[in-house]
Amino acid sequence: MLKAVFFIRHFNDLDHFTPVVHRMAVEADLSCDLCFFTPYYYNGDYRVKFLTSLPNVRLVDVRDFLPKPAPSAMGLIGGKEARAILDHCLEGAKKAVVALDWIMSLSDQVGGAYQAIVQEAHRRGLAAVCLPHGDSPQYNKLLYKDHYTYKQADIYGASAIFDHVATPNELCAARYRHHLPGHRLHVLGSPRYNDEWLSLLPGILPPLDKPLPEARLKIVFFLCHPEFVVFWEEVGRTLRLLAAIPGAHVLVAGHPRKVSYLDDFFAQLEREPELQSRFTFETNDRPSSLLIQWADLVLDMGTSINFETVLNRKPLIVMEYLHGMCSTIAHYMPEIAAHCRDHLLDACMAVLADDPPLPDPGNLARFKQDVVTCGDGDVLARYRDLLMRLLRDGCAAPPPEVEPVSHERAAGIDFPNDFYRDSFPGFVRMADMARRHGCRDILELGAGVTTLLFAELARDSGARVTSCDMSFDALKRYLPSPGHEELVRRHVRLIQGASVTAAQVRAVYEEPLKELADVPVAEFAPWLASQRRGTPRPWLKEPLERRGGGSYWSMHDIFLRGGAVEFHPDLLHIYAERGYQHMLNTLEDLETQGQAGSLALLDDSEGFDMIFFDSGELVSLVEWNILWRRIRPGGLAAFHDVFFPKSVKNFLICSSLLASPMWRLVFVEENTPQGLMIFAKGEGRTTCGKDAA
After folding, report:
1. Contact 218, 292 (CB under 8 A)
2. Strands of the sheet with 441-445, listed across from one edge
């Protein structure tokens, strides 16, 4: 059985997910689970009724998997709950895909829940795809009232947790372009406003529960979210203007009584019963589509419902003078934009004269092509094809469970902390991958528990293993018995000393870095965001905000200057043990003693089938610059500590390899803060979700 699991948390999700679920359920040979975080969606919503009328669609109440009852599951989902939910949804499924919606942060309740779900999907080898919950009804970038710079408006970096992000148009996709590589970002058209769905929608809408008022001029006025830049005093004055039109009745959608931005207007209504009779305030109990059908004229302040209005050839005026944004409709069809009260009043009079304002056909066609269909063909088929590709071909088969093996092999090992212990299953997988690849020459940079695993491999396969470290004293804690010590002594060549020199370190960190392993910075810069995970530790927060220009910093802000990578001295000082200058001084002292630059002890002609990079924070990048050419074609490059800001050790290298056609990502472990990535060297690159070896 094939399964698609959709997580749904609010009305916008339902508007955009329903067409996709319908197409999947009708045409694809699979079952769909709709997982709801909040129970009120079950109370007769017409979209849920429609989907559950299909035989292979099932509802799942996420609250059933919480340890105690709660009105909503949001904020209460961790790893244990995510595992229980997917255990339930995927019972009997041979292959599956997990779909969620856009998020803006990993630190809030939604982000925490989604991280747990995505990580559990990845643990099972499943792809997690992000589907739209909007269409970008605003054309500009500075949308929210507290956003004053483009940096503050860039709130989309959290999308990097998903394997793929689907967007309806380029307006939405542009928000994600510098957070995701191109192959993970898809422009598929609008699932909500394409022709197929708009033609199907009238047949599933419920009847009006009670009739709406009759009037000579019926106006529905859609308000926007109060977080946007809106001139609410003028909104109140505009409502009075509409009420003064003889025979007009205004239905205000969005129920402004729940907030205080129209207090003055409501005070006037209390004093003027005749004025009050001209209005109906809609509480979102009825579908917006029914309100549009009722209206003679639709007024909108920059919500995507205006897309449905104009595509259904209903008279529409976008109220540009009421907010500090540029609506997408106004950009494409300026002839139906009101920039002052006069424009609005003239439009109302034109409707009464049976000459309603309609968009220019050419402008409407351009809008539809750019924003809704985004090319020729079947929009919903594109979503179906993406999900089916990720389900069948785009995600690896579930990796074998390594926990029982790791627990057995970890017996007696003295791990310094949980970070090291939690990393052990990934190290076991890495050693097993080296075994399956038939690696004969292995270089380990930074000794530890992996030294024991490589020693076992060398004993069993005859592989030649070399380990380089500044000191092997700490290695002993990972050797639970004298027999294990003897195993390492017999099968691993140990080279002690600093692997690099102070001059080699300076050459990497004190000069702008324009390329890495023949990959120009311009090519791997878009991948930097994919290597960012979690929040900085307290002592890092201030330096990062200072370097990045505020709390909304991006990876580009921290590391890119003038098209090159530059490491700020503050970061070098923090990440180097006891400070950057102390590190350089130590290396210079060791060099005078002949104990630095130990990589020079390797035979210049020596090639490797695997190199594992896990040395000091500011050393690994230097080692990579020296050694990357010595990995044989088909060989493996493995990296521990690949995520920033937990570490600066290997995130930059991994970003460059993700962008390089010469390297193929074959394994990623991202359930620990450090992470582990393994790449194979070859002629082409195909990136997969988990272990593809």
Report:
1. no
2. 492-496, 464-469, 441-445, 608-613, 631-640, 676-681, 663-669
Phi then psi for residue 519, to 5 deg, are -105, 115
How many other C-beta atoms can be found within 10 angstroms of the C-beta atom of residue 94? 11
Backbone angles phi, psi at 220, to 5 degrees: -110, 130
Q: Taking the model in full, what pTM does it have?
A: 0.60
How many helices, marked H, and strands, marked E, lie in the chain? 28, 24
Provide the 3-class DSSP secondary structure of residue 646: coil
What is the Cα–Cα distance from 3 to 614, expressed in whole angstroms? 38
One domain, residues 387 and 443: no
Determine, yes or no, domain membership for 287.
Answer: yes
Q: Please report where in the chains the tokens 């000393």 appear, as a residue.
A: 497
| CATH code for the domain in which residue 457 is found | 3.40.50.150
Q: Residue 424 CB: number of other CB atoms within 10 A?
A: 23
What does the alpha-carbon distance between residue 349 and residue 143 come to, in Å, rounded to a whole number? 31
CA distance 246 to 64: 54
16 domain-assigned: yes
Q: Are residues 478 and 584 in the same domain?
A: yes
CATH number at residue 83: 3.40.50.2000
Q: Give me the number of domains the chain comprises.
A: 3
- Within 353-440, residue ranges assigned H as helices are 361-367, 379-392, 403-409, 418-436
- Please indicate, yes or no, whether residues 384 and 343 belong to a single structural domain of this protein: no
The candidate with the shortest Cα–Cα distance to 371, out of 173, 150, 185, is 173
377: its two tokens: 């063909």
CA 667 – CA 467 distance, rounded (Å): 22
**pLDDT tens-place string over residues 314-367:** 999 999 999 999 999 999 999 999 999 999 999 999 999 999 999 999 999 999
Closest CA to 121 of 91, 97, 94: 97
Mark whether 8 and 51 lie in a shared domain: yes
Q: Is residue 559 part of a domain?
A: no
User: What tens digit of pLDDT does each residue of 414-454 get?
Assistant: 777 777 778 888 898 899 899 988 899 999 999 999 999 99
* 36 touches 72 (CB < 8 A): no
Answer yes or no: do 380 and 449 share one domain: no
φ and ψ of 265, to 5 deg = -65, -40
Count Cα neighbours of 561 within 13 Å in the Cβ-side half-sphere. Answer: 10
Q: Are residues 331 and 218 in the same domain?
A: yes
| Distance of alpha carbon 252 from the chain centroid | 35
Asked if 296 and 219 sit in the same domain, the reply is: yes
The residue type of 148 is Y
Phi, psi of 354, deg, nearest 5: 60, 30
Count the neighbouring beta carbons within 10 Å of the beta carbon of residue 631: 22
370 in a structural domain: no
Residues 215 and 179 in one domain: no
What pLDDT, in 10s, does the model give residues 205-247? Answer: 999 888 899 999 999 999 988 888 899 999 999 999 999 999 9
| The pair of three-digit structure tokens given for residue 615, joined into one six-digit string | 């040395």
Range of the domain at 211: 205-360
> Rounded to 5, what percent of the chain is helix, strand, coil?
45, 20, 35
